[in-house]
């Protein structure tokens, strides 16, 4: 990224207020939100990722919720006034293992239904217009949170997903430009399944940046032969996904954490000190923790998913960083200040190149198996102190 002619590295958090979580737009705890923005700024972060629940922002087809739009305008004003920027996720129908599609969607597939394609284009255009009225507050717009793992993607032809992405991309750019500015960056968001397999295949959807999500949870990985977060294999996995994604274009580590924040602080510290420099070396241009605070609200989906309760970076009692997680804050501060050297590729002929199949999720390729084998090879080369590059 560049902002005002200066290189910019996005560091920060994914944001929901602790008292409301995904119900933020309904409850709108204004004082809490403004306080949290001050905390984010004072820590030394510069970016927060915010989420527009589609069911709230467009409760009826073609009818935007004026109250929610006004809240968004206020939020972007508050963000800009603090010198922060927002990474805005617009199509939020899936969040924290809960579904929030608009009720009027019914059983229509987001990607394959002509009606939903048309509605998506109009909604994307409208949200981009709102964002375009606050260009100083916008780092980028993204499609939506983890669309790659939704049932919508699983049940849609790959061609339909790609067509939807092209149409929404065009609508975002037209909407933002209608307010007087060119859209800064358009982001496609994926989990580490983007590498292991999904319908948003790398290289098939034209965006400015691809983001990756990754957590040290064995059940979520194609390879599980590691002990805990202190195992070097554990903290090589997200850098491996970053390296694969970077071979297609710019990449951001948009969602990450230790996820088990009740784990021994030394274990979490070891993971962060091992993973973060590796992911940076592999080309990530930003990092955002999930999430700022623990969520105390117990409505849906938290009532069914207690793993989402205690993921906060900050302790509610005193606004300090949770023990064991200081390594991320230190890393983020140094990165935003330019105190960490920008990595340079190894000299020609000095690195081992791992060739990743272009059609890794089709043409007979098993993406999950390729990811497992690639991760093992990447890890073994690293522990052997051999520079690698994925091509």
How does this structure look, described?
- The chain has 391 residues and is α/β, with parallel strands linked by helices.
- Helix content is 37%, strand content 16%.
- The protein has helices at residues 24-27, 30-43, 54-57, 66-81, 114-132, 151-154, 158-178, 193-196, 232-246, 265-281, 326-336, 367-383, and strands at 2-3, 6-7, 10-14, 47-53, 85-92, 94-95, 98-99, 138-142, 186-190, 209-214, 251-256, 284-289, 352-354, 388-390.
- An eight-stranded parallel beta barrel has the order 3-4-5-8-9-10-11-12, surrounded by five helices. It has a two-stranded antiparallel sheet with strand order 1-2. Strands 6-7 form a two-stranded antiparallel ribbon.
- Helix 12 links the parallel strand 13 (352-354) and strand 14 (388-390).
- The radius of gyration is 20 Å and the shape is globular.
- The chain starts with a strand and ends with a strand.
- The mean pLDDT is 89.
Largest sheet: number of strands, sense, barrel closure: 8 strands, parallel, barrel
Number of strands: 14
Name the helix and strand elements from N-terminus to C-terminus, one letter apiece. EEEHHEHHEEEHEHHEHEHEHEHEHE
| Mean pLDDT metric | 89
Q: Radius of gyration, Cα only, in angstroms?
A: 20 Å
Strand order of the largest sheet: 3-4-5-8-9-10-11-12
Number of helices: 12
Query: Which outline best applies?
Result: globular
Distance between the termini: 23 Å
Roughly how much helix do the residues carry, as a percent range?
25-40%
β-strand percent reads 15-25%
Instruction: Give the low-confidence spans.
Output: none
User: SS-based structural class?
Assistant: alpha/beta
């Amino acid at each position: 990224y560049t902002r005002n002619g200066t290189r910019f590295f996005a560091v920060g958090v994914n944001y929901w207020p602790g008292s409301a979580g995904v119900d933020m737009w309904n409850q709108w705890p204004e004082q809490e939100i403004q306080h949290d923005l001050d905390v984010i700024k004072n820590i030394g972060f510069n970016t927060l990722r915010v989420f527009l629940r589609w069911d709230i922002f467009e409760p009826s087809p073609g009818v935007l919720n004026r109250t929610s739009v006004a809240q968004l305008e206020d939020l972007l004003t508050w963000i800009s006034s603090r010198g922060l920027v927002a990474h805005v996720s617009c199509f939020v129908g899936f969040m924290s293992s809960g579904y929030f599609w608009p009720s009027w969607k019914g059983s229509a597939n987001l990607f394959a239904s002509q009606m939903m394609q048309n509605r998506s284009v109009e909604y994307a255009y409208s949200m981009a217009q709102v964002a375009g009225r606050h260009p100083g507050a916008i780092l980028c717009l993204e499609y939506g949170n983890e669309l790659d793992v939704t049932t919508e993607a699983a049940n849609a032809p790959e061609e339909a997903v790609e067509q939807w992405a092209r149409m929404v991309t065009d609508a975002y750019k037209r909407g933002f430009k209608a307010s007087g500015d060119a859209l800064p960056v358009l982001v496609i968001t994926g989990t580490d399944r983007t590498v292991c397999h999904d319908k948003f295949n790398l290289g098939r959807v034209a965006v400015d940046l691809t983001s990756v999500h990754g957590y040290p949870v064995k059940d979520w990985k194609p390879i599980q032969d590691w002990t805990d977060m202190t195992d070097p294999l554990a903290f090589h996995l997200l850098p491996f996904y970053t390296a694969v994604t970077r071979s297609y274009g710019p990449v951001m580590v948009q969602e990450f954490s230790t996820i088990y924040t009740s784990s021994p602080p030394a274990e979490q510290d070891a993971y962060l000190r091992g993973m973060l420099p590796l992911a940076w070396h592999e080309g990530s241009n930003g990092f955002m923790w999930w999430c700022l605070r623990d969520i105390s609200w117990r409505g849906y989906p938290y009532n069914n998913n207690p793993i989402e309760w205690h993921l906060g970076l900050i302790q509610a009692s005193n606004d300090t960083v949770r023990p064991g997680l200081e390594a991320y804050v230190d890393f983020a501060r140094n990165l935003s200040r330019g105190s960490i050297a920008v990595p340079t590729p190894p000299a020609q002929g000095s690195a081992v190149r791992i060739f990743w199949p272009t059609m890794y999720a089709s043409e007979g390729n098993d993406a999950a198996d390729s990811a497992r084998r690639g991760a093992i090879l990447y890890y073994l080369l690293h522990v052997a102190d051999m520079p690698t590059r994925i091509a």
